[in-house]
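> tool_call: predict_assembly(chains=two)
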Amino acid sequence: MVGTSKPAPLNHVPRSMTSSPLRVSSPRHGCPVTVVTAVQSGAAPLSPEVTQTGGGAGMKLLTHNLLCSNVRGLRPGGGFPLRIQASDVSVRPVPFNAAFVARLVPRLRWGALLEAAESLGHPSELPPEPAPDYEGDEAFLRRVHHVLLEVEVLEGFLQCPDSGRQFPISRGIPNMLLSEEEA
Amino acid sequence: MRTRLLQHSNAPLHGQRWRGLLLNREEREALRSHHLPACTVGPRGSPSRHGEAAPAGLTAIGPPRGWPGSTLRAAGRDKMAGAGRYFCTAGRGLEPFLEREVRARLGATEVDCTAGKVFFSTEAAPGELRKLKSGERLFLLLKKRTALVGSRNKGKMLHDIKSLFIEEPKYWQDVISIWRNFHGCEGKKDDVSQENPSPLKRKSKERDTASKRQKTEEQVRETVSEEHQTGAGERCVVPEDSQTESETSLADSSKSSGEKAIANEQLNFSFRVSCRCSGAIAKVLTSQEIGRAVGVTLMKQCGWQADLRDPDVEIFLHLNDVHSVVGIPLFRLPLANREYIKTAGLRSTIAWAMASLAEISAGAFVLDPMCGLGTILLEAAKEWPEACYWGADISDSQLEGADVNIRSAGLMDKIELLKASVKALPLPSESFDAVISDIPFGKKFKITKDIQVLPDLLQEMERLLRVGGTIVLLLSRDLHKRMDDITKCAEHDSPDASSGGTSETTTAEALHADGNSSSLVNGVEESFLSSRQTCFGSLVRDGVYGVSLGKTDAFIYKYKKICTAGNQ
C-alpha cells in the first residue's frame, strides 16, 4: 500500500478480516448479482481491540454513508446505499471526541450505516434510530464513533443496488469513475 | 485601485490602503507615542512626511517600541515576554489575508499592511509565530524608515544606507541576543559565543541546508518574484541562492577585510546581507553594491565574519519607494514550507487562504473535487481539524501523492479520498458545507477536456452544496475572464434575477475588467451579497481576490449558496 512504513508484499495476508466477505445481497428487482471471490484468510472474529499497525487508511463508513452510484438511468434513490463487499477490512483507533461525533449523527443516513456495519461483521449494537437524547449518551456516541470512523475498508467492492455495477476499492480508495458509455 | 480587505462577517472594516502607509487613527497614535513617523502615502506612492526636518527617511528616531534597548530591558523583563515588532512578507494579493491572520492568531497590534509586507507587534512566542500560514518569511524588524531620496550621487546614497547600520556596539549585541533567544527556542545551534564550529560540523550542516535549499529553491525563487514591487524598478536578485555572482564578490572582499575586523572574541559570529531594492534607488545602485557596502560596514562595526553559505544570522535589507526596512529573518526556511506537507501542489499560502475563506465550522463537511495532491485539504484539515474532509480526483498518480501527503501529515483521520470525476460526483445533493478547489485548467496540469466544462463544474458543485454553504475556487486569468461570461448568461436564466441588482453587477464587472497589469481584483462588499443578485443558479458571488502564483496571476472566487425558489 502506498505510504506504509513497511512495504507490504503484493499478496500480503490481511491482518484482520471480516468474517463474511462474501455477503451477497439477495437479488432484488431482477438485478444481476455478481459474486466476488475474495481472499479469505484467518477466521478470527473481529474485536475492536485488534488494531492494525503501520499503514492502512481505508474507506470509512462515514464516506460510505455519503457515496452513491452515479450510473445513469437509475430510479430515484436507486443508487444508495451501496452494498459493501469487503475483502480487507481493518480497524484503526481514532481519538474519540464526543462533541464531534454528536454533530455527525444528524447528518447520517442511519439505516445505511447499520446495514454497512453489519455487512462488515461489525454489528454496531446501535438502535434502529438515534434516541432523542443521543448527545449526552457517551456509550452510544462511542459506538457510533467506532463504526463510523474506526472501521476501514481497504480492499473490496461497492455495488450499486439498482444496476449491480461494481465500484472497486483499492488501497482504501473507492474508484467511482464511470466509463464513457456509462456516464 | 483599491483592494478591499478580507471580510469576515464579524470583523470591523479598517480604512486602510494596502499599497500605502496610510494608517488608521489608532495606529497612527500608537506610533506617534513611540516616536516613529506616521506617513501617509498618496495615490502615486510618494510619501509626504509630517514634521520631519532631517534628511529623508533617516532621522534618528530612537528604537522602535518593544526593543530591548528601550523600556523592556530597563524593566529587566525577559525579552520574550515583551512585544516584538516584526514584519512578514507576503505574496502579492495575500496581504489582507496575512493581516487578518496576524490579528487573529497572534493578537497583533499596530498592524501596518503595505505591498508585499505586513508589519505588526505581538507578544506571541516563536512557536506561535511559526504557525503563520499566509506569509512568506517572517522577520524581526530592526529599522523602518521612509524611503531614501534617490539622488544621482552614488556615494551619498551608499552613505545614507550605511548609516542605517551604524549604531553603538550595544545595539548589535542586543540584536544578537534577541536573535539567539529565538533560535534557542527553535532548537538551532544557539551557542554562538563558542569558537567557530569545527569545519566538519559546518560541512554537514551545509549539506543539510544545501539539500533543503534544493528542495526549497523553486519556492525561494517564487518568493523573490512575489516581492516584486509594482511600477518602476528593477527586480534585484536576492542572494539567497548561493551561486550568484554578487555573493562571491562579497566573499572576496570579506577575506581581505575580515582579518582586521575580528576584534570581539565574544561575537565570533557570521552573517550575510540580503538586499532587495527597487524603485528610484535601483536606478542608481544595484543590490550587490549595496549588499557589499553594508556587509563591510557591519564587519567593521561588529567584528562579524561574512559567510555566504551558512551564516549565523542573515541581515535583510529592503529599499524601495515606500520605505527602507532592515530585518532579521527568524526562521531559516520560509513559512510557506510546511513540514507536514511532503509534496506540495498548490502553494501552501494560497491553499490556506482559500480554506480561510470557506468558513469551515466545527462538524463541517468539506470537499475538494479536484484535489490533486491534496494541498488545500491538508491546509484546511490542519487549521480546522473539527471537520470532515473529502478529496476526489481522476488521476491515480495524483491520488497516490495525496495519500502519501495525508499519511505523512498524520491526517488520515480527517481526510478521505475518492477516485471520481468532478463532472459526476457520486455524492448526494446538498451534503457539503464547503467546496474548495483549485481549478487546474491552463496552469500546471492540463485537464483533458476543454475550458467549456466550467459551467458544468459549477453546476455540480452547486448541487453538492448545502444552502448557506461556501464555494471557493482558484481560477487562472483566462478562466477569470470566462467567469464573467458564464455568470452573465446565468443571470438571464436565473428566475431570481432582480432588476435592482443589475447596477451593482455591472459595477463589479467593470472593476474586474480593469486591465492594469498590476491589478489585484477587489473583494466585493457585503452589500453585494445583500442584494441577493445570483450569479449562477443559487450562487452569489461573495468576493474575488487577485493573488500572485509567482509567474502568473490567479483569482480566488468565493460564492455562497442562498435559498432560492429552486432549492426550498
